[in-house]
Amino acid sequence: MSREPNAQLIAVMNEARISNKGLAKRMTDEAGRRGVELGTTHVSVQRWRNGSSIRPQTAAIMADVLSAKLDRHITPGDLGFFGDTKATAPQPVGYPSTVPDVLSMLDGLAQERTDTPASDRLIVAESDLSSAVLSWMIARPDGVQTDRPAHQRVGMRDVRAIRDAADMFMQLDFKYGGGHGHKALRHYFRHEVLPLLDASYSQKVGTALFGAASEVSQLLAWTAYDTGNHRLAHRYLTSTLRLSQVIDDRMFGARILGNLSHQANYLGNHTQAIQLARAAVEGAKGRATPRAMANYSAMEARALSNAGDGMAAGRAVREAEHHFERAGTAEDPSWLSYFDEAELMGELCHCFRDLKMRREAVEQAQRAVDSTDPKYARTLGFCRMVLAQSQLINGELEAAVTTASLAVDGGDSLQSSRFQRYVTDFQAEVSTHAAHPAVVAFNEKVSEALARLDDDE
Question: Is 47 exposed, middle or buried (0-12, 13-18, 19+ CB in 10 A)?
């Protein structure tokens, strides 16, 4: 049967002024940077132009390449792909419509490396973001397929093993940063966790298994985020959001929306950050523990503070504190155990700093530093840098540099691009005092710490 030429792909390629060979080379180069073997040639491109089908992962890489070439967001749909799915509701890019789709996407993501992120920029179309949130908000759970014929039977012992592994990798992440264990974690996820989801299990085991898999997938997102690969982190997060939908885990799904808000806020996308945090709060009402609700409200407070909306931020801070006061009244899942009073103070001290509330910023940041367990090295480093920035707001230059120096002393082994950005942001803020002896010494300390980090890699 003859196919119609793919007019949309041809039009976009013409607009980008790119040849079949040029597109093929850019795609294989981009795939190589992600650790994926693509095998695309100019012949492959011509087939797609002629109307042949394409794998979702390949289409996503093509769209990313053409987005970079044209400096605007291109989706596989813009290229004329997957048009045969019109009978189903339109799905946002990166938000799979079925369980097999999300498992296939996660398998593909687990083959990608984080060590060569393209840039700190992440362009997420408002329509894609809104569609993902709406899809999650109104979705019905897929449910797990129980007792199906398979060569392997999964039990609760397998689920406990996954959760123990996730806890181990989380501790590594807190101590050394996301770059330390990501490669091993994605190998474990792809070869040990994902295959179990296609095995045989009871309803109880299947529900627990999908929950444990979501926890590992979320940790992969965080480690990618921490290394600075925001595109990969975002795709992990949206896929994990879809995974939580299988078993109707609204509390964990809201956590993922909170994580997406955290990332958007970090990248300066304040409107998206506020919308995502509010979706987490609204989507989890009546389904989440007070401790979890405190976390979601804290994300909203951070986004509002960074956007400069002091009145709304104050309301969200009070809501977070009110929820946390009731944290002991319900049993929390194990994945939420890290969110203690010190963690809440760490989140809120960012708010006071961003709102330039001088006294409150220093007091809250000092409390966060004093109460953070040193085993959470990255969190302690963040809190110290926020304290240093808060002291600087108060005109306490030498105190600020001393505090920042302590953060660098305790964090020079962190393979965390986020921590390094806190440090470089502080360096920029004290650059007006570049000749001050304390600032000169601090800049030298940072250079030495980065050199040691290079030597350790």
Answer: middle
DSSP state for residue 200 in the 8-state scheme: B
Among the listed residues 196, 220, 190, 224, the one whose alpha carbon sits nearest the alpha carbon of residue 210: 196
Whole-structure pTM value: 0.78
Q: Give CA–CA dist 28/26, Å, rounded.
A: 6
CB distance 419 to 382 below 8 Å: yes
Determine how many CB atoms are found less than 10 A away from the CB of residue 305: 26
Domain positions in the chain are: 7-85, 96-116+125-248, 356-457
SS (H, E, C) the chain: CCCCCCHHHHHHHHHHCCCHHHHHHHHHHHHHHCCCCCCCCHHHHHHHHCCCCCCHHHHHHHHHHHHHHHCCCCCHHHHCCCHHHCCCCCCCCCCCCCHHHHHHHHHHHCCCCCCCCCCCCCCCCHHHHHHHHHHHHHCCCCCCCCCCCCCCECCHHHHHHHHHHHHHHHHHHHHHCCCCCHHHHHHHHHHHHHHHHCCECCHHHHHHHHHHHHHHHHHHHHHHHHHCCHHHHHHHHHHHHHHHHHCCCHHHHHHHHHHHHHHHHHCCCHHHHHHHHHHHHHHHCCCCCHHHHHHHHHHHHHHHHHCCCHHHHHHHHHHHHHHHHCHHHCCCCHHHCCCCHHHHHHHHHHHHHHCCCHHHHHHHHHHHHHHCCCCCHHHHHHHHHHHHHHHHHCCCHHHHHHHHHHHHHHHCCCCCHHHHHHHHHHHHHCHHHCCCHHHHHHHHHHHHHHHHHHHHC
Q: What is the pLDDT along the chain (457 residues), one digit of tens a residue?
A: 345 788 889 989 998 999 999 999 999 988 887 777 777 888 889 888 888 778 777 888 898 899 888 877 788 888 988 654 333 334 455 678 888 889 988 988 888 877 654 455 666 777 777 888 898 999 899 999 998 887 889 999 999 999 999 999 988 887 777 667 888 999 999 999 999 998 999 999 999 999 999 999 999 999 999 888 888 899 999 999 999 999 999 999 999 999 999 999 999 899 999 999 999 999 999 999 999 999 999 999 999 999 999 999 999 999 999 999 999 999 999 999 989 999 999 999 999 999 999 999 999 999 999 999 888 888 899 999 999 999 999 999 999 999 999 999 886 556 688 888 899 999 999 999 999 999 999 999 988 887 776 555 4
Whole-angstrom distance, CA of residue 81 vs CA of residue 56: 9
